[in-house]
Amino acid sequence: MLVECVPNFSEGRDLATIAALQAAAAVPGVRLLDTHSDPDHHRTVLTLVGPPDPLAEAAFATVRVAAERIDLRRHRGVHPRIGAADVVPFVPLGDTPMAVCVALAERVGERIGRELGLPVYLYGEAARRPERRALPHIRRGEYEGLAATIGRDPDRAPDFGPAALGPAGAVAVGARRPLVAFNILLGTEDLAVARAVARAVRASSGGLPAVQAIGVPVSRPGVVQVSLNLLDPQQTDPLAVVRAVAAAAARHGVAIVESELVGLAPVAALLPAAAAALHLPRLQPRQVLEVAWALAAAEHDGAH
Amino acid sequence: MLVECVPNFSEGRDLATIAALQAAAAVPGVRLLDTHSDPDHHRTVLTLVGPPDPLAEAAFATVRVAAERIDLRRHRGVHPRIGAADVVPFVPLGDTPMAVCVALAERVGERIGRELGLPVYLYGEAARRPERRALPHIRRGEYEGLAATIGRDPDRAPDFGPAALGPAGAVAVGARRPLVAFNILLGTEDLAVARAVARAVRASSGGLPAVQAIGVPVSRPGVVQVSLNLLDPQQTDPLAVVRAVAAAAARHGVAIVESELVGLAPVAALLPAAAAALHLPRLQPRQVLEVAWALAAAEHDGAH
Fold first, then answer.
1. pTM
2. Scanning every residue of chain B, which has its alpha carbon at the shortest distance from the alpha carbon of A293?
3. Would you state the torsion angle of the CA atoms of residues A262, A264, A266, A269, taken in this order, to the nearest 10 degrees?
C-alpha cells in the first residue's frame, strides 16, 4: 500500500537547508522521487513515496528540520505561506484508500503539534472544518496575518498545537487526490496581466473547474508568472489550462513564453496533451510501456 | 533482467485464434501487457514482458499455435507478411544488454526451425547477413514471393529450418531497440496519396531518419492509412512524424483524420508531443509519477 507525500518548505535558495531536508526524508522504505526548488517562490517541494509508517516518519523528520532551520520572520517569496513547513499533503497512490491518508494527516499533525510545538491546521480531505478544505482560506493573510490573529480569533484556532506563532510558523497537514502544480510564464513585465489571467482561469472567480491560480512576479526579466494548482487533473488537464491561459493572455496581447511542472505529474494528466498533438483520441495510460509494466507489477503484487 | 517480446501474427479477425495466442503466452513470470488486433492489416501484435527464460518459452509457444492455426495461402491483409508468426522481436528493457536479446533470438529461432520445421530468418541486431538487418528486405515479395524462390535462390536460404515453405510460411526472429508502431489515417480515399506521403517521410527514400512507412488501404470509408515504424523514437519521435505527414499530405490538399498506436510506446517517445503542446521544454520521463516510481523501484532492485 503506497502513499505519496509532497511537503512544501519555505526555503528555495539555501542549498544546505535543502540538503538537510532531503537527508531528513531518507527513512528506509521511503523514496525521494523529486526535489523542486524555486528561488522566486523561495520554496522547495519534495516528492516522497512509501508505505504509510515510514512515510509518516519521513514527513515528520522533514518538518522538524524545517522548523529548526527556517525563520519566517525573514522569509520573502512570491508564493503565499504560513510556515517553515508550509503544507504537508498525503496522497493515495494506486488503490490505497483516501482514509489511509486522512489517518496519516491526523497522526503526523498531532505529533507536529505535540513534539514540535507548532500550530497545525488539517486541510483537504482531512479538514475538520468545511472552510479548511481549501488552502487559500488557511493561508489568508499569510504568516504575518496569522501571527496577528491566531491567539484572538477563534476561526484561526489550530487543530493541534498551541494557538501561538513562533519563527517557524504553522503547518497545514492534509490529505488530497494527486494534483498537478504548474507554472506558466507570460511574455510581459506587467504583473496586472498575470493577475487578470489568473482570475480568468481559476475556479473561485468562475474559470475552469478545480483550478487555483495566482499571478506573481519572478526574477527572470521580461516575464510574469501564473502559478497554478490543478486539483483534479482528470477534470481539467494541463492542456485545457494552457489553452485557457493562452486565450486570456491573448486578450492582453501577451503570449505564453514557457511552462514548468512543479514536482511530478501523473501520466494521465500529461496524455491529453500528447494525444491532441499526435491525433491519438484513444491514447490510454496503459499504452505507455513503463506505466503498463508498473500496473502489471502492482496487480501481481496485489495478488499475493 | 527484463526483456520485451512483441510477436506479430497474421490473424487479426478470428477471436478464437487470438485467444489461443494469448493463452499460449501465459507462461509463469511472463506478463501480457497488450493485445492489438487489426482486421485490415489482418494481424495481431502481443506485447510480452518477462525474464529471458520464461519469455523464450512464451514466444516459442505462441509461434507453435500460430503455425498450427494460420494458413498463409488464404491470408489477405494490407500489411506485408511472410508467415503465420510473421516477426518475433526481442527488445531489451532498462539496462538489459542487447546481447541477451540476440542470444534469445538465436535460441528461439533455432528451436522454431528444429521443432516446428519452419524457415527462420534472423533480423535486426541478430542478423547474420547485413542485408537482413531490415525487415523489408526479408519480406520482399511476401509469402507468395518467398514460396516461389526459397528453394532456389541462395539469397533466401533461411538461418534455421528447411528451405521450403508450408502453409505457415516463415518467421523473422530478431533483436532490436524499442520502436513505436504508429498508423496515421488521411482524409482521402486516394491510395496514391497515402503512398506518396509514405515515400515523402520514410528514411529509405530520403525522408526522416529511422522511419519506415507504407501507404495502405483500410476498410473504414473515406480514409487511407500511412503505417509507420519509428525505429529510433529518440531520434525521430511521433510528433516529428505527425508534423511531416501533415505537411506532406497538405501538399495533396489532404489532412490527418486520426492516428493510432500499435502496441505500446515508451514514455520518452510520447513526452515530446506533450511538451510541445504544454510549452514544457524541459519535460523529462522522471517527471511522470508512475515512471519515476518504476525507475526508483528498478534501481532499488538493482542495488540488492
1. 0.84
2. B33
3. 30
